[in-house]
Sequence to fold (153 residues):
Amino acid sequence: MKGIKMTLDTKVQPNLMTDWRKIQGYDKSVDAIVVNVGEGSFKDTFARIPNPVAGDVYTVSFDAWGSTEDNKITTHCVPLEEKDIIAYAEGGEKRVDNGHVDWYNLSEKSKRYFATYRLVEHARSVMIRARPGTTYIRNIKLEKSPYPTDYEE
Fold:
């Protein structure tokens, strides 16, 4: 990867996301945040970064699936300018203009997604954005690490 030397650390890192089940839209019957979004709209879910420092590396990972064709899910670090995307899950498409990573046509089965960012000054959260259709998101993990590790409760 450009700009950072990484060594694989498979040790599970602490989840800095306190309780994703308290996020608006959580549905106990499917144990997921359910996001219904109309055409041309979106809905954001935020993983707040505690005590962010420019240059630190954070990874957000989550399970997601969709119920309609053309579902799309996006991540990016907030604020929206000049992101340093280090890595992201297979099938993602990096948009250089604003630091988004997009995944299109979500499967009807749960799949794990991740994006790793080097923080810029004033960074405060990583955003997961659901786009048109019904999207299910669960097991959100934010970790101070260049690699996603297994989700554990």
User: Anything to note?
Assistant: The two ends are 30 Å apart (CA to CA). Residues 1-8 have pLDDT under 50 and may be disordered. The chain has no helices and eleven strands. The CA atoms of residues 40 and 132 lie 7 Å apart.
